[in-house]
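TA notes, week 10

Several of you asked for a full example with nothing omitted. So below is the full record: structure tokens for the whole chain, then the designed sequence directly under it. When grading your own attempts, check the secondary structure regions first.
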């Protein structure tokens, strides 16, 4: 989840958990506590990009880490607070609730979160919410501002806190419901058309929970397409891309490539672009692929020129998003146009 959403929800939670004891300072502390796991971005200063990708949402997003940090916060806060208005247990639960919420929200994205590090390197991802979803984030952000401006003892403050926490939770449930509908349709198509299919996944297209990018693995490549919850077509309109994994032979001993393969969870292809091989992670979708299925995948890493790789998770994600493209995107989300033009 994006940092601003974590800050907003952290502030609202802080107000609900400790606002009576700490006043509006609880909002600032709640925002701080919920952003602590993302301090791992500092790893970019000493790691190469592939290892940085695996490091992000790794140990600092694990259950062990949040337990340790919550305990340290509780001990430090109890020692340093001038007025003993909150017990050590209350401080611990305050910090723990914020940190666990961060882990839970990040698990809804497709990046993958290492909840069980360092005991297991498995990455958890529900693939149910795009990393920036204005329909999810806007209300908490506005709510945080309102709570900051509202008098601390205002009679409506408690009701507002509940509302600002309940509605985002309901939206997450709605996202999971939509994902279940898309996955059901995808599994029907797999059973009918891909009897030898391997793993598959679905993930939201940018900024919504109605249009979904779906991928089905085959031995030699992947079928991929888009499906809106409003589509009436009986089947998903799939396209195919070859995996070309044999092209990685010259890089078989390259540690960076091994990390990229692990990071992609097996959903990757290799393509030739100019004089460089390109590693594509399919989990992050395409650049406006709903309009043109031949568009490049958002995550593409230049294997021959590692220094040319920056922001590979977001590279070109909004390329070509002019007024016309946005209108076309909205029409595709709500199934007003066909998948192919």
């Amino acid at each position: 989840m994006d940092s601003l959403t974590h800050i907003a929800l952290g502030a609202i939670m802080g107000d609900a958990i400790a606002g009576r004891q700490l006043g509006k300072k609880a909002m600032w502390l709640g925002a701080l506590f919920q952003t602590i796991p993302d301090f791992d971005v500092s790893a970019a200063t000493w790691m190469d990009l592939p290892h940085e990708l695996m490091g992000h949402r790794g140990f600092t997003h694990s259950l062990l880490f949040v337990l340790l940090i919550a305990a340290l916060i509780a001990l430090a806060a109890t020692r340093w607070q001038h007025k003993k208005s909150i017990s050590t247990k209350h401080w611990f639960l305050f910090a723990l609730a914020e940190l666990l919420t961060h882990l839970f929200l990040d698990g809804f994205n497709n990046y993958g979160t290492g909840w069980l590090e360092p005991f297991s390197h498995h990455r958890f991802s529900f693939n149910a919410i795009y990393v920036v979803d204005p329909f999810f984030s806007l209300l908490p952000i506005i709510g945080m501002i309102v709570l900051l401006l509202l008098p601390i003892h205002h009679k409506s403050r408690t009701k507002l806190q509940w509302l600002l926490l309940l509605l985002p939770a309901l939206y997450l449930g709605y996202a999971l419901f939509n994902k279940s509908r898309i996955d059901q349709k995808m599994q029907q198509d797999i059973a009918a058309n891909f009897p030898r299919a391997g793993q598959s996944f679905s993930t939201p297209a940018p900024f919504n929970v109605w249009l979904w990018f779906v991928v089905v693995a085959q031995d030699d490549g992947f079928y991929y397409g888009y499906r809106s919850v409003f589509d009436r077509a009986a089947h998903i309109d799939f396209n195919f891309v070859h995996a070309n994994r044999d092209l990685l032979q010259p890089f078989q001993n390259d540690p960076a490539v091994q990390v990229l393969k692990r990071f992609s969870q097996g959903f990757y292809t290799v393509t030739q672009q100019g004089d460089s091989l390109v590693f594509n992670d399919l989990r992050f979708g395409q650049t406006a692929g709903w309009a043109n299925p031949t568009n490049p995948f958002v995550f593409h890493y230049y294997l021959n020129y590692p220094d040319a790789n920056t922001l590979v998770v977001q590279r070109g994600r909004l390329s070509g998003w002019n007024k016309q493209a946005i209108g076309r995107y909205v029409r595709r989300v709500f199934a007003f146009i066909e998948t192919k033009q």
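The first strand starts at residue 200 and ends at 204. Use that as a sanity check on your answer.
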